[in-house]
Every structure is written in structure tokens, then in C-alpha cells.
Fold this sequence. Notes:
The protein is α+β, with helices and mostly antiparallel strands. It has helices at 143-150, 161-172, 251-260, 332-341, 358-366, 389-396; strands spanning 36-38, 43-50, 55-61, 66-71, 78-81, 86-92, 98-103, 108-111, 116-122, 133-136, 155-158, 177-180, 206-211, 214-220, 226-230, 233-235, 240-241, 264-269, 271-273, 283-285, 292-295. The protein folds into four domains: 30-122, Jelly Rolls (Sandwich), CATH 2.60.120.10; 133-220, Glutaconate Coenzyme A-transferase (3-Layer(aba) Sandwich), CATH 3.40.1080; 226-301, no CATH class; 332-408, no CATH class.
Amino acid sequence: xxxxxxxxxxxxxxxxxxxxxxxxxxxxxxxxxxxxxxxxxxxxxxxxxxxxxxxxxxxxxxxxxxxxxxxxxxxxxxxxxxxxxxxxxxxxxxxxxxxxxxxxxxxxxxxxxxxxxxxxxxxxxxxxxxxxxxxxxxxxxxxxxxxxxxxxxxxxxxxxxxxxxxxxxxxxxxxxxxxxxxxxxxxxxxxxxxxxxxxxxxxxxxxxxxxxxxxxxxxxxxxxxxxxxxxxxxxxxxxxxxxxxxxxxxxxxxxxxxxxxxxxxxxxxxxxxxxxxxxxxxxxxxxxxxxxxxxxxxxxxxxxxxxxxxxxxxxxxxxxxxxxxxxxxxxxxxxxxxxxxxxxxxxxxxxxxxxxxxxxxxxxxxxxxxxxxxxxxxxxxxxxxxxxxxxxxxxxxxxxxxxxxxxxxx
Length: 410
């Protein structure tokens, strides 16, 4: 079976949504649709398609937000799919009693037409009062905690993620903290806020230390009580391997830091093995550091990444063919990423962080540069590549007919 080219256009903005043309496919982009707010900024709705037969809506709700009691037209049944977070649906039945259903990601709920119901986004009540302080390096994937921090309902710091990684190792070693020049002159510099996110965060976690005429930042260590980690296989003595994980990251440092702080180390794994059967070189967390192993029997609760159930290329089992991703849309983020990509050199060993640095890799892929960059590159050691007119023609020859010149604008 040959793969057909993608010829579907996005739904035209001026289309009459009361009737879509017969025998025509359209791609629907929620971010290209005019949205409206319900009950302030806590609920934002994007009407993708509204016809006489059905509605297709995408909506976002802040944790704790509510779409109050309402009734749909009889015969207009509703199926809701949860993409992220949790939503609680309450249905009022004919006898006045209420039925409640809570759905999580990849779960859906059916509501019959004419039913009176309301929708609540589950969130704040699970965090507020349970969390007092948060020290993070990337807040994008924790919107509920992010909201609490911005609103000043918890104490919160945003510190460099790499510094936090070093801090785990220094805590494990019993050091008083991490001394580095990383963060000088930025928002984590104590003269510019010390990484504090809101006004209720008063404690100083970063200090300025001059040494031999040079300025350094000192990030204080703190005791750690609990570590929640994950792996692939644990044996009956608690030794943990990570053969199906994408990255091992700071797992060993965190486990050691918590153990040396007198805390508890809990590791979730996919399976259990008899002791002595794991290859010693595969063990990433020794059992003497582990207090508790949790075997996850439901794969839905043990995804490899936050949006990938499992990809063998991520764990190094295979090397996936070079993909051709969609070009990034022109934006401030892309302009910054392109400028950073100009600093890449053939055979470079590149460490790209999460967030805006992800765009550097995307731009490098657009320009056919990824094959000349590596995260380790032992097979290209000593190679030299001359970037001349012939090299540029070879790399960009397929783009000659591309009339989207905006991607080259700085």
C-alpha cells in the first residue's frame, strides 16, 4: 500500500459551517478558529465545526473551573474526550438525582441529548493545602501548580534545570550547595529576584559569592524526604534497570540524595525479576538505595514520555529513519532558534534543553543539518566537513522551489 500525499486543506475560515460540502475532507485546526470565553478566562471554547447534525468543539478549562448547569437540544447527543487533566461530569436525571462520572486522559463520556448537566475541571483541590513550596526548572507541564504559583497561593522558585541537576549530586555528596556562575545577571540572580516567582515567596535560595574577584551564585542544598522515580525492571532486592526508558537523567543522584537525607526512595517499574538475574551493568539504581518498588500493571500509567506510550527509538532499541517534520511557523521563538542554529558546527555534540531550545533541533532538521550533528558522535571523531558552495547546493537543492521565504527571515 503506497502512502498518498496529504492534500487536505485546513477548513477555510469563511466556510458555511451549517453545511460542510459533501465528499470533501478538511483538516481542522483548533488554534486557527476564533475562540470565545465562558465565565471569564477560566473556560475557553473553540467551535471547530457546527452543523445541523453535530458540533465539534475544543475547550480548555483551568483547574477548578466550571461550565455550569445547561441543557442541550434533544437529539443532540454529546461525546466528550479528555486530552489532559481530569474532568468531572454531573448529570441530572429525570427523578432529580445526580449521576457523576470523572474522566482522565484518553477516556470519554457519553451524554444523551436533552440531558441537563455541568462540567467541573478537577485540579486545585488536589494541590492546594497539600503543596506549600515548589522549586522547579520547567513549569510548562504542570499547569495546576503553575496557576497556584502565579496566583501566590504557594511559595515557588524557578531555578535553572541544570543547576537543579547538579544540586541533587551535591546533596547526595553532603555538600552545602552548588557553586556556579550559571544564572548571573538573570532572574535567578539575587539582585534580580533570586528565582522567586511571587510576592509570598520570601526565603532566599540563591546567594551572591565573590571569589578571587569573580562573582558566583551559591544555590543552597536542602534535605529531601521522598523520591518518586521510575524504571523498567526491578529485581527482588530492589535493583532497578532502565532498558525501556528514554533517559536515565538524575535518577541515581536523586535516589542517593534522598537516601543520604534519611528519606524514602520509591521506584515504579513495569516488571519484577528474580534477584541476581539482571546484568550488573544494566542496573541504574542499586537496591541498597531503594525502599519500595511499585509494579505498574496498567501500561496507561507508565508511558515512556508525557505524550508517548512507547517508542523503541527513544530507548535506543532501533534507530528511526530521519524524519521530515513540518516547518515551524515564523514566530519570535523560531527567529531565536534560527539564530542559535547558526552557531552549530558539523560534528558538534549538542545538548538541547526543553522549551525554546527544542526549536533549534527543529530548525536544524528543516535545513538538513541533523545528520551532521550528534549527541555523542563517536563514529565521526576526526571527520572534517568543508561547507562550501557545493555543500550548500547539495543540502538545499530540494528547497529551491519552496516559495515560503519567511523561514529564512531573521
